[in-house]
What we know:
mainly alpha; 9 helices
Amino acid sequence: xxxxxxSTLTTSLIHGNPAKQQVQAHIFSAFAxxxxxxAIELVILCFVSFKRRHGCYFWSLLVASxxxxxxxxxxxxxxxxxxxxxxICVTLIMFSWCGMVTGQSMVLWSRLYLVLQNTKVLRxxxxxxxxxxxxxxxxxIVLLYGAVSTPYGNFAQGYNIFExxxxxxxxxxxxxxxxxYVWETVKLLRLRPQGRRHGILQQLLIINIFILIxxxxxxxxxxxxxxxxxxxxKSVAYSIKLKLEYAILGELxxxxxxxxxxxxxxxxxxxxxxxxxx
Length: 278
């Protein structure tokens, strides 16, 4: 590892006058602590909330939740003068980013069938997640490792541009999946204008709209100029979105038991323990 590589990436995280640097450092530390706390809680909830620990929904939740921990760790090791190789930091950041972002999309997809019975649409959404993972993750990994190896070359400039494209691309992907969920939930609300199921569907609708708003905020923070704040705010935002999934879990079980015959509900709902939503 060259000293130039580490210093270039570190100065890209924090810049400006000393007062601004100190403020960013405090916010950076606070976001890292919040994200780690949420991630540890999420991992514990994964093992507590499921009767049987298998299925797409369980593994997506577990991988996305656990990935937050190394993602924050990579930035902390890079941000503060720990002496850890920049290649280790970049490896922690990039591969955990894959698990965190694509894992979140898989979480959204794996519960989409509860409000959408069109298998063609479900299959197309899954293919969209797979294709986007290949199109966005692989070039970003290559460009960042290239930027580390040659910090003053074209790789660094290419990564800065592609990082924004990648973030917007994944945001659009989550907007599409959540948008389908919201649309189908609204249709169900029209079919059930009153009763307990109506209230449950309203709660699901509000939670998914809030998830949509968080996705948009992540993109907006990319253009604010406080890069040190933005990189860890993404982790906090994803941890909040995953915690909202546990608020949805109890409602999904209620819908599954009330709207369908329970024996017809797919395994990911049957594997969830009964517990009050957050």
